[in-house]
Amino acid sequence: MLIFEEMLTRGHEQLTVLQHAPSGLKAVVAIHSTVLGPAIAGCRLRPYDEERALRDALAISESITFKAALAGLNYGGGACVLLAPANGSEENHLREALFRSLGRQVRGMGQRLILTEDAGVTGQDIAFTAQETQATLGMHTDTPTVTAYGVYRGLKAAARTVLGSESLRGVRVAVLGVGSLGTALCRHLYREGARLTIADQRPGRAQALAEELGGNVKVVDVEDLLDAPCDVLSPCGFGHSIKYADVERLQCRMIAGGEHQPLSRRGEQAVKEAGIAYVPDYAINAAGLISVATGISADQAAEQVYQTVLHICTLAQQNSKPIHVVARRLAERRIELIGSLARPIV
Ligand SMILES: NC(=O)c1ccc[n+]([C@@H]2O[C@H](COP(=O)([O-])OP(=O)(O)OC[C@H]3O[C@@H](n4cnc5c(N)ncnc54)[C@H](O)[C@@H]3O)[C@@H](O)[C@H]2O)c1
What we know:
Blueprint: H1 3-10, E1 14-20, E2 25-33, E3 39-46, H2 50-70, E4 76-83, H3 92-106, E5 113-117, H4 123-130, H5 143-162, E6 172-176, H6 180-192, E7 195-199, H7 203-213, E8 218-219, H8 222-225, E9 232-235, E10 254-255, H9 265-273, E11 277-278, H10 281-284, H11 287-294, H12 298-318, H13 323-340
Parallel strand pairs: 3-4, 3-5, 6-7, 6-9, 7-8, 9-10, 10-11
Antiparallel strand pairs: 1-2, 2-4
Bound molecules: nicotinamide-adenine-dinucleotide.
Nicotinamide-adenine-dinucleotide binds at residues 44, 117-120, 143-144, 147, 176-182, 199-202, 205, 222, 236-239, 241, 258-260, 285, 288.
Organism: Deinococcus ruber
Binding site for NAD(+): 177-182
Keywords: NAD, Nucleotide-binding, Oxidoreductase
C-alpha cells in the first residue's frame, strides 16, 4: 500500500505507529479528521498483519469521521488498531500492561485523540488506559450491546423505505459474524420474528447462538452465506467482509450491518449497479458512539439512529439516489460547513 497516497485520497491528517516491546504493544493510530473536534478512536485488538492493520486504521477512522458528523457530534474520526501480542493478552496483568502502555504512548497526542472501545476490546481495557491518560470515553458502557440495538432500529428504518414495511417479521436476514455485536443484533431480530441465517469464521459461535435462540435459525458456512437468498445481508465481522468479486453472488435487496467498512469504494459502486440498497456503517452503527459521547441512554441513542437512517433513506428515495451516497453527502456537508467557520480567538 502507498501510505501517503491512501491518506491523501481519504483525506487523513495523521498516522502514528506505536511500539513498546515489554508490554507487547504494537498499534497503529490513524486520525482522519479533527475538523469537528478531537478524533474519537475505537480501539480494536486481534491478530493482524501490518498491512491489514494499516488499512483498517485508515478505513475505520474515515468511517468514524462520517459517523460523528452524521450524528451531530463535535468529534472527529480516528482508529486505534492493536496487533494482538505474540505472548497472548488474555491474562489480566498482560492486558493491564498492554492497555496502560497504550495510554502512556497516546498522552503525547494531546487534545487530538480520545480512545474508546471497538471489536476485541472491553470497557475494562479502556479503564486500564484511563489510568494513564484522561483522553478516554465509554469504559462504563457496554458499547457492542448499545450499538447492536441501534443497528436493529436502523435496520427497521431502512426496511420501511427499502422493503416497504418496518416490520421484520418473516423478513429473511443473513448475519455474517456473530461476535459481541452480531449476537446481540440476532437476539433482537429473532425476537421480532425475522428468519435468520447466520455464519461465523468461528463456526462454534454460530452453532451456540442457534442453539440459544432455539429452532428456525439456519447456520451455514461462511463461504455459503453470501449466496444465501435473503432480504437483508447484515455484515457484523471485522471489515471488508464483502469483496468486490462477491457482489455478483449476492441475493439480497439491502445490506445493513454493524461492521465497519464492509465494502470497498469499488464494492459500493458494484452494489449500486446491482440495485442493492446499502446503508453505510457510519449511519447505522452509531448508537454506541452517540451514547458514550453524549451520555444518553441506549434507547435514546438507538432512536437517534432510527431517525437518522429514516431521514437518509427518505431523501434517497425522493431524489432517486443511493442511500450511501446521500449519507456521505450529508456528513461531508456538515464537516464542510463547520470547517468553514472562523476559529475562535481563544
Ligand atoms: N464492539 C463495538 O462496540 C462496535 C461498535 C461499532 C462498530 N463495531 C464494529 O462491528 C464489527 C463487529 O464487532 P464485534 O465487537 O462484534 O467484534 P467481535 O470480535 O466480538 O466479533 C466479530 C465476529 O465476526 C466474526 N467474523 C469476522 N470476520 C468474519 C467474516 N468475514 N465472516 C464471518 N465471520 C466473521 C469473528 O469470528 C467474530 O466472531 C466490527 O467491524 C466492529 O468494528 C463494533
